[in-house]
Amino acid sequence: MKKLLTRLGRYYNVFLIGLLFLATIFMLFLLVPGESRFRYEFQKNAPWRHETLIAPFNFAIYKADDLVKAERDSVKKQFVPYYLKDSLVSIQQCKNLELELQGLSGELAGLNAENTGAIVRILQQIYQAGVIAQSPETHPILKDRKKMFVVQDKIIQEVLIDSLYSLKTAFQALSDTARSLLKDDYNLLNQNTNLANYIQANLNYGEEYNQQELDKALMAVSETQGMVQAGERIIFKGDIITPDKFSILNSLKRSYETKQGQNIDRYLLISGKLIIVIACMLMLILYLAYFRTEIFNEKRHLTFILMMIVLMTFTYRFILQHDFINIYVVPFAILPILLRIFFDSRTAIFSLLVTSLLIGYFAPNNYEFIFLNLIAGFIAVFSLDKLHRRSHLVFTALWVFITYSVLFIALQMIQEGNIEAIQWNDLEWFAGNAMLILLAYPLIYIFEKLFGFVSDVTLIELSNTNQPLLRKLAEEAPGTFQHSLQIASLAEAVIHRIGGNPFLAYAGALYHDIGKTNQPVYFIENQSAGMSPHNNMGYKDSARVIIDHVTYGERLARRHKLPEVLIDFITTHHGTMQAKYFYTLYKNEHPEEAADPKDFTYPGPRPQSKETAVVMIIDGIEAATRALKEKNRDTIREVIEKMVQAKIDDGQLDNASLTLREITIIKQTLLEKLMNIYHVRIEYPKEK
């Protein structure tokens, strides 16, 4: 029954992993575009390495994007604005002014019918010429322009801007006319009426109308500059792809890929795209299954890697669909950086390769995209060998920017063959890319909380002796605290030599004995000389108290929400060994009784990593060498050899993936470090 449950559990795990990969393949299949692809790859100023190319159909030669953009910018710059003329303003204001003046004619002798008509006619002429709200010199739309279009009753008329009135100049013209006609009566007119009230802008800028006209003008800009007829030779094999040939080839590629649905089997496109996605994911599956089984079997880790690949693919697909920003501003290097921080360099590089191939399939300039991002990703991984200072990520971002810039300029030199033709402005996108890489810092914290990861930054924070648990250990079990500090220092030195995570080994060693805070006096390092509570206890009870520091330590760690990787040090630092001291005493005292080893055995499990195995080895050796009466190279070496071999014989290191070479290095390092710790000090002479 137990075997059946084990087998079912294994199958269930395989089923979940398979389901996870199938879901990833499905999402990537939806994200990767399924248009037909042009079969030839080519670069400007490089040889045409394919067979002689003949035009398969008639197609237009498209202008370069920069040329089209320049022509459209020119259209925008030369665009003549349209103003909508409101004829009702002139009629209404002239009528109001005429009525006002007629009402004042009895009070002002000079305001006769002839003068009234002259003033009203001047106002009509002003409105006929056109009045705008502000002076053309200060109007941003009319600045530096000489003419504009006036639209009145669906009739468009070109007007010189100098002939227009502003509110100020229109009032001045009307006021000057009234003064010249009325002479002395002008002041009386001003006292009875305000001529400015009859001046109102009758020309208004029509935002919607102008936008429509501008759109028409922009649409009139042709994107093509000629045609290539079917059967016409485009380029010979071996010919250099000149800028003109490059334009023709790009036009053929564009025309070919836009003929989607014409004489194309959609099922073949779908099948091809599915095979490409499966092939990329199969590479990742095989790598993880064969070389990173611990990641492959851990669903949280696997989910994170696949999620990052899907998110990165989605980001690029979204940007390319909406075309609102250059794709090189996307910090592609964040993917390998995060995987390097949470896993290892090889996994980061392999995931980088798979993602580059997936996105490179639909990214423009496929070779350039894959080339730039692969090398920039490699540099990011190699430059970020550690992350325990904020400056490390800043320097990594700087190296990524330099890599992108140098490689981009090199490719531009090959493609353009002219230093003046290099698109220096594109370096701004790489600078933005480098700045966005700094987002990795908050992302590290977020993903740690979501997926239970532990970065070097977190390990360093947890290694601070002012952390609550370590402070508790230092105050309640000072001897154990000093022992833990010694173990941490030795473990860090050993891991530096054999490879691994020294920050993890150091932090794990600090916390491995926190369970001793429950009953610290029962452990010899916390006892006063000659005073041990074990003297009044049975051997089984003593063994139980000693063994309980593991289970209590685990509960204490979980209560304080320590990461699982640190809890592993607590549960594995004694593995499944026995409390040998009390077990031997019990057997000696009860020779006639068959002692049950389970009463004296630690619950385990055995160490599963190099770091936990190293802490187990050092934990016993440090305590044993401290108890030696005579400490010299021979006695310390003998203890090290004996205790390491005992753990090997007992199978405690079977799951820790330590090689014989690494075990030898561990023993040599411990001997060297312990000799430095226990070296004989000189005796100072006494003053006579």
From TrEMBL:
CDD domains: HDc (cd00077). Keywords: Membrane, Transmembrane, Transmembrane helix. Residues 476-633 form the HD/PDEase domain. The chain crosses the membrane at residues 12-32, 267-290, 302-319, 325-343, 348-364, 394-414, 429-447. It comes from the Bacteria. InterPro entries: HD/PDEase_dom (IPR003607), HD_domain (IPR006674), HDIG_dom (IPR006675), Metal-dep_PHydrolase_7TM_extra (IPR011624), Metal-dep_PHydrolase_7TM_intra (IPR011621), PgpH_phosphodiesterase (IPR052722). PANTHER family: CYCLIC-DI-AMP PHOSPHODIESTERASE PGPH. This is HD/PDEase domain-containing protein. It comes from Mangrovibacterium marinum.
